[in-house]
Amino acid sequence: MTENSNCEFEYKGLCINGFLMLFWTFVFIPILILLCIWYGGEDNMFLSVGCSVVLFILFIIGCAGYFTQEPNEARVMIFFGKYRGTCYKVGYYWVNPFMNKKKISLRIRNMDIDPIKVNDKVGNPVMIGMVLVWKVKDTYRVVFDLDASSLSNAQGNTLSNAALNNFVRIQSDAALREVTGQFAYDPQSDHPDELTLRDGGEAINNLLEAKINERLAMAGIEVVEARLNYLAYAPEIAAVMLRRQQASAIITAREKIVEGAVSMVEMALRRLEEGGMVNLNDERKAAMVSNLLVVLCGDEPVTPIVSTGNQA
């Protein structure tokens, strides 16, 4: 059996409408029992009692074969330890009373994975969490490839949602740690175009979904969607990383300011020369450039000093 092979098949055995069997079990058999007692009499007491006991046993056994199934539910049919198929029929039915019918929900389930602390590609501790949407795809694998003792309830007829959720949560945590270790939280100076956790977006979600599917496929579970819903630096380095981000933002802003200031100074000098308003030598040009850069790049407003000429 290969890793992704599907051993599940539909149940083809006896499956009778439940309402029809109600008539047989609760009307026809009791009438037969009364007829045996009535017509048996004292002459055929042994035969009458024997037939009545057999019919009563059939009545008791028949009562155990009924089940009701809603949409997006399935029952794995097991007959004395052998898999007989999975029943998807919706409604009220009766099957062999000796058939073990394990109920499985095929509905979509939602799971919120609490943020966990992991190390990114460069070793920085980060807190990361996700939302997972999943459902059961292969009922055979869910029932027979997972530990049945931990996945069944006290009656053994319904899979335990708590145990199934625990399996999905553990495998999802492992996949989340694996994906997080492949990427850095922020772009690095030596690899500015590299995919990161903060800017990866859909690419990170797709990779995470594929990794979780690889881990859950062995249990017959399919991931519908996996998305990061929480991403932050761990508390012990959050303050330091915040200062680094602030410094990076300040440097970027300063670069823009200087770039704009140089462009404005260049434009001012060019227009003065083209207009012939004043003739500036190199020394006066340098002083003018210095003054304009101070005005344009300064954080605080500059108080101008107006010269009124030489005083006697």
Folded structure, characterized:
This protein is of the alpha+beta class. It folds into three domains: 16-102, no CATH class; 109-233, 2-Layer Sandwich (Tetrahydropterin Synthase, Chain A); 240-297, no CATH class. It contains nine helices and nine strands. The protein has helices at residues 18-40, 45-62, 139-144, 148-151, 161-180, 197-200, 202-216, 235-275, 282-297, and strands at residues 16-17, 66-69, 73-79, 82-87, 91-94, 99-105, 109-119, 125-136, 221-233. Strands 1-5-2 form a three-stranded antiparallel sheet. Strands 4-3-6 form a three-stranded antiparallel sheet. Strands 7-8-9 form a three-stranded antiparallel sheet. The longest helix is centred in the last third of the chain and has 41 residues, at 235-275.
Features:
Tetrahydropterin Synthase, Chain A; 9 helices; 21% strand; alpha+beta; 3 domains; 312 residues; three-stranded antiparallel beta sheet
